[in-house]
Each structure stands twice: as C-alpha cells, then as structure tokens.
Amino acid sequence: MESKSFIRDGLKLKSTSILFLLLSITQMTLLTAGHYKPTWESLDSRPLPQWYDDAKLGIFVHWGVFSVPSFSLSSEEFSSEWFWYDWKGWRYPGVVNFMRKNYRPDFTYADFAKAFTAEFFNANEWAKLFQRSGARYLVFVAKHHEGFNNWDSKYSFNWNSVDVGPKRDIVGELMNATRSQTDLKFGIYHSLYEWFNPLYMRDKSHLFLTQDFVEQKTLPELYELVNKYKPEIVWSDGDSEAPDVYWKSREFLAWLYNSSPVKDTVVVNDRWGSNIGCHHGGFYTCGDRFDPGVLLAHKWENAMTIDGHSWGFRRNADLSDYLSIEELLQTFVKTISCGGNMLMNVGPPHHGHITPIYEERLRQMGSWLKVNGEAVYASRTWNYQNDTETPSVWYTKKTYAQNTDIYAFVFHLPEWGTLALGAPTVSKKTQVTLLGHNMPLSFRPAPSQGLDIFIPPLSISQIPCKWLWVFKITAVTN
C-alpha cells in the first residue's frame, strides 16, 4: 500500500468498531419504527420534496487531492479526478508518463495531499458566486473515490482536510457560508467506495460477502455527514462494483427518511448499488451527463460539466474544451423541458480560487436567468417538449386556475422576423410576449393548431438577453 495513512486509518477504524456497532443498533431501532421500511417498494413511495423539482439548476463542485496534479489528456478521454486510479492502474499512458517525467520514482499519491493548500478558498465568495449563477442548490464533493475526506471526520486519520493539506473543515465552512449568505440548498456528494482502502479491497477479494468496509467506514461517514452538516441532498456514487445489499443502502435510506434531521426535506439520487441506478431513488441520474432528449416518467438529473472532458480541474485544458454559454443554455433548456434538473459542475484548482472561465459561465447563466427565470423555476413539462414545426424550440409550462401558459425557448431567432410554431393551440385570451421585453407581440393563429409570432425590429438595447430567447404564450387550450 503506497499510503501509510490508510494503514493508520485501518487501525483507527478497528478501535471504532464497537462505537459503530452501538450506533448501528440505535439507527436500526429508529428506522424500523418509522413510516418507511428498508425495502425499495417502501422507499420509492416517498414523495419527492417539491423544492427539488422547482429548483431546476444546481451547482456541482469537485475538489480534492486530485486537484493538485489536475492533469488529464482529452485525447485519452479520462477525467482528472481519476488520476490516482489511472496512474496506478496503468490505464492511460499519458498519466504514467506525466508522473515519470515530473516526479521522483518513490513519489506516492498521498504526497500530493500536502500541496492541497486551499490558500485562496473563501467559502463566502464561493457561495455568493453560486447564488449569482441562478442555481438553487449546491452539491459539494465531501469525499471522492480517492477516499480523502473534506471534513473533520472521526473515521479518517490523516487522510482528510483537517489533518493534512488545507487544515480546514471545508464542508463545514461551505455549509455555513451557503446557509448564511444565500438561500441555496446545501448538499453533499459521497463516494461509497474507495479504490485502494485495504478494508474495501479485502471485502472485494471476498466477493463482497464480508462488509467490514461498509460497517467501519462507509456507513459511519454517511451518518456523521447527515447528523453534523444536515445536507438536503445526499448524492451517492461509487456504488458500481457491488449490489445495494453490500452497501446496506436500504437501511441507511430508511433512517434518512424516518429519523434523520433532514427527513422531511432531503433528496437522494439513484446510485446505491450496482443494480439500482435508473431504477430506484429520489431522482435518477442513470449515468454521467445523462440527457435522454425525451420526457421521462420519473424525476431525473443531468449531472454535467462545463469542462467537456473532466469533473476535476485540468491545468492543461484548452479554451475549446469548455462549453460555451450557448451550449450550456441549450443543454439546460432541453433538460428542463424533458422533466430533469441540471447539475452543472465546477472544478476549482488546488488553491481554491475559482478560475475566470468558470466564473464567466456562472455569471452568464445568472444574467440569463434574471431575465428568463419565470419560464424556468417551478415550471413543469408540457404536452410537447420541442416544437413540431421549428425543432430548435423547446417548451415548459405553468398552470394557473383554468389557464395554462407555455414558454417557448428559441435557440435561434428567425431571419425574417416571423417565428412559426406548430405545437400551441391559442385561444381568444392568448397573449404573446418576449420575456424581458414585455410588450405584447402580434401573432396569427393557424387554422387548427399553431401560430406565427411577428417579432418587431429590436435595437441592441431592447434585446433582453444575448442568448436563447423565451416567448410567453398565455391561455393555450392544449
């Protein structure tokens, strides 16, 4: 094992076994006394808290020891947060050669941790920037597959952000800043497995018939995170090698829904076992950058990246690797039109100052949502996701009493000033406006279904936003 910290972790974990046994008995007592039972049928019957469906946009933050090497080659299609695994697993020549050329032969991954300095990390500045983006929730990576804890954990010795590197409780600082400076919901990402943890490797060698890692590391951490930081999203990952029975996922979720301090508001995803994704959970992710392009029956989330190749920061990224604001907005609109939320990832460098390209994209998203948020927040899916005549138009709706208003998101304004829509059926009460302009626009109903919207010439100062425009069509009858 290349990291002595893991050996010390193993010794410390043994000393906490009795403590966790007592904790487990307490948690099991609480979960069996509640409304939700540790079965998927029962857990899936819990209604999704409405705040999540209303929110539409969240910010994902990947930050850890992997932010120190912060290296990957887009040509090899691997992400920088998998650096350790790709290096020691010899999966990609680019990583192996990078280490061979730049570091001494006996350099270990654990040696990167002291350079995870976070000297420019300011939780208040982060929180305010995320608020300005128009996002309504934050999911921060408390622990990725490397096993490094970004909080002061009783279940990690010298492989966490308090004992090495920043010497700070990153999760705690960001939680406090988020809740004191913004109205964002605070959530955490937690990896169930750790690539090279000896306890996990031993369970794996036993074909997951033993559960020492789960009982001494995974579950204690999850209970600790929820009780200490009260996250309203628990975003699980790292489940793919073992089924939910090994992870004891159902037992944890029953406690989370019945007895935890966030039992009424918490939301979870679907990564709770190799057999669970896209089948069970509060919302489905189904895979990274999941974008089905059609309406799904179950609430889902598109977890995606501004850097098209990586979740963690890459020092060697090119400008062309980052999605433009037009690409981000088009992805966002298609996502919410099909019933999903978008979780947009930011990868800060090791020092903790969010780089200008990420800041620009976040501010651009926020400026667009200031104009068009009415069509986004608390909207619902309509009968049509995209238009039948102009396919680059996508829809959301809002219903008030007996009236349904729809919002047409237009990727490209027509050259000749007439926007032809085939899906809406208008009524005598229908009005059409361009969000941010607010003056009623003239339109011509089609004989049976659809309408032509006449867009007047607008000066630069009259155009409400730079990218992707939204037309509000009130009182439609379909």
From TrEMBL:
Domain spans labelled Glycoside hydrolase family 29 N-terminal: 30-374
EC number: 3.2.1.51
UniProt xrefs under SUPFAM superfamilies: (Trans)glycosidases
Alpha-L-fucosidase C-terminal domain ranges (all copies): 385-474
Record-stated family: Belongs to the glycosyl hydrolase 29 family.
Function: Alpha-L-fucosidase is responsible for hydrolyzing the alpha-1,6-linked fucose joined to the reducing-end N-acetylglucosamine of the carbohydrate moieties of glycoproteins.
Name of protein: alpha-L-fucosidase
Organism: Aplysia californica
Gene name of the encoded protein: LOC101845931
